[in-house]
Specification:
Layout: H1 3-48, H2 51-76, H3 92-120, H4 127-148, H5 154-182, H6 188-215, H7 225-233, E1 238-248, E2 254-262, H8 268-284, E3 289-296
Parallel strand pairs: 2-3
Antiparallel strand pairs: 1-2
Helix pairs in contact: 1-2, 1-4, 2-3, 2-5, 2-6, 3-6, 4-5, 5-6
Length: about 300
Amino acid sequence: MKMNDKKEVKHSHSHTHSHNYDSEKNIGFAFWMNISFAIIEVIGGLITNSVAILSDAVHDFGDSISLGLAWYFQRLSKKGSDEKYSYGYKRFSLLGAIINSVVLLVGSILILSETIPRIINPQETNIKGMFILSIFGVIVNGAAILRLRKGNTLNERVVSLHMMEDVLGWLAIFIGTIIMYFFDAPIIDPIMSVLISFYILFNVFKNIKLSMRVILQGTPVDIDIDEIKKAITEMENVESVHDFHSWSVDGNYNIATTHVVLKQNIPMDETSILKETIRDKLKQLNIQHVTIELETIGEECIFEECI
């Protein structure tokens, strides 16, 4: 290896390490901001007698678990494959998603059990206290979003979306307190709580559905198998494609295996070029890891989906 190449590799490694470190710091910052404010929300919700704020506190505690796991998995993701996990540690993020979903599910059901009776018999709330908390909520979560927008990792983008949900929730409470200030309508508080809880439950079920699809090794939602097969068969010297399988490690890193039938025998160096061409094409179609087996016409294939 040339000296310049060594410098380039060293620089690349240093850049990757620095980027991972920055990602950890950004997610860590969002975690401590979120967990601290969630505690303030619980206290403020009890003082102001607002189930809407308590609902958002449950959401924030769920987000804090998600952030804590995202922070941990950001560090863990730096570990490559080993004897225990040949594809690396990416799939651990699914465990975090499921734990977070269960926490949000249980918390939302508990909040709804407290909130629904209040729609029938609304209770007075401390409107000024809710108003101050809502402004604080927008500022805290907005600061976390600004910090996370500097990052480029998937973890940071997902966490940023969580924070955006929180900002929207606090904006709803802010508007609700203004309405309650001018009109005697305490029923607005439990209605906002129900809306927030149902919004959380909708996203929980959506996330569980996606997580289960990945765990059960379903075809990734953004992968079109027919398009992939067509792209491969249009390549020079390719007769057909069969026994194609695709799944995802963590919902983002996608894997595929396939058998490619050649029109005729070709030299070893040409097979290497063909494989690299197929991998480059599939990478454009969002498949990052491809295993290819080349066959010739008439060659016997014993696998289930072989012809």
